[in-house]
Design brief:
This protein is mostly helical. It has 7 helices and no strands.
Length: 211
């Protein structure tokens, strides 16, 4: 059995392993430091790991899947993107905003997530993921900068930089930038995203909840 898109499946797998390793670290940090903001980022990395793994499966084994199996795997990928961006936003809100403001923002984001998951169940379109992901990450970017300006916390800058790199990766993918016949825009997107994960992890590991 040959993989349909071997490089894309491989880079997705590496992305999944990286995200999973960071998830374990952040969950361990959050348990030791009792910081919900770090815990939320750990959950976000876990969701990213699942999404990258399911994406790798779909890219590698799509020709061998039934329509039903492919539909399930694709939906898992879309669900994971929404869940990851929600927990990133939640983690940043807990660290950058006053408790009451953060609670309201998280509630609104949770309702938005529920709507997104429902719509993906009905119409599993990647466009829906973009519409859900971009505003969440824009909010994370703003809160990262706010965290630095108001609290002097450098972790926000690392996370803001991660958002910028993540947007660059998305732009590369949408533009269809291809470096080689066996290294297409999806592969390059995955590699750039690995850089954003490193920045996210660097910032998230030192977040502190606003009391």
């Amino acid at each position: 059995m040959e993989l349909a898109e071997p490089t894309t499946a491989l880079t997705d797998l590496v992305l999944a392993l990286l995200a999973f390793g960071f998830a374990l670290q952040l969950i361990r940090y959050s348990n030791r430091l009792r910081q919900k903001s770090i815990r939320d980022w750990g959950i976000a990395f876990g969701a990213l790991a699942i999404g990258a793994l399911s994406g790798g499966i779909s890219h590698g084994f799509a020709p061998y899947m039934s329509d039903t199996t492919y539909a399930v795997v694709w939906r898992v990928t879309l669900y994971s993107i929404g869940i990851a961006s929600f927990y990133m936003l939640s983690g940043m809100a807990r660290a950058a905003l006053r408790y009451r403001v953060a609670s309201w923002l998280i509630l609104v984001a949770l309702i938005k997530l529920a709507v997104y998951l429902y719509r993906c169940s009905v119409t599993p379109s990647f466009q829906l993921a973009v519409y859900d992901y971009v505003p969440n990450m824009a909010a994370v970017l703003v809160m990262g900068i706010l965290l630095k300006k108001q609290h002097g916390d450098g972790s926000g800058i690392w996370i803001a930089a991660g958002v910028v790199i993540s947007f660059v990766a998305a732009g590369v993918q949408l533009a269809g930038v291809t470096l080689h016949a066996h290294f297409n825009h999806n592969d390059l997107y995955h590699v750039i995203q690995m850089g954003s994960l490193v920045l996210f992890h660097r910032g998230a590991s030192s977040l502190q909840d606003v009391r």
